[in-house]
Specification:
Strand content: under 5%
Helix content: 55-70%
Number of helices: 4
Radius of gyration: 11 Å
Length: about 55
């Protein structure tokens, strides 16, 4: 995990461009680690399971 890739992934996640899973993949960390990193920076973690059901 490089700092730059982590920050880029978190920025894209916060702007709803990518999912949590994609952000984790971009940063080479687990989804659980990505959640922890997001929360530690005050970025809310979305419940993507509900969002995917709401999409057509």
């Amino acid at each position: 995990m490089s700092f730059r890739s982590l920050m880029t992934a978190m920025t894209l996640y916060r702007s709803r461009t990518i999912t949590l899973e994609q952000a984790a993949d971009r940063s080479n960390v687990s989804p659980a680690k990505m959640e922890s990193e997001l929360r530690s920076r005050g970025i809310p973690v979305r419940d993507e399971s509900q969002e995917s059901r709401a999409s057509p």
